[in-house]
Design a protein that fits this description.
With 149 residues, the protein is of the alpha+beta class. The protein is built from four helices and six strands. It has a single domain, classed as Nuclear Transport Factor 2, Chain: A (Roll). It has a six-stranded mixed β-sheet with strand order 2-1-6-5-4-3. Pfam families: DUF4440.
Length: 149
Amino acid sequence: MKKHFFIFTLLLFSVSFTFAQSSTEQEIEKLSMDKWQWMADKDVAKLEKLFDDKAKFVHMSGSWKKDRELEIIESGSIWYKKADVHDTAIEISGNTALVWNRITLTAHVRGNDVENEFTVTEVYQKQGEEWKMLALTFSSVRDTHEIEH
């Protein structure tokens, strides 16, 4: 009986360890979620600090660099009102973090509220003590799309 209990405990520990996020993954996930809120709040001061100077952004209507993205957010020409995050996957490789968020985005664009399903790919790089976003890409997907973990 003790042998079975020991094996069960060991198995339970290994399964919980496998599914636990590392502290770096938790940090990146929080940063990604904060970013969605900063975009909704049009907080360009926080976003300016987060976005690397060479960051690139890919949207349904085009792609551009940091200055244009901040201008779009500040002016409200695209207002990222709310991102409902349904699923997140994170991979860390050295000082680079990749984040995939499956979201329903409610945005105000050209005078209209629109809602779209996206998988958003984010690339972050650790620079000194801070994480900087290098890229953000919106990929239009069906609401049944699943991120492979």
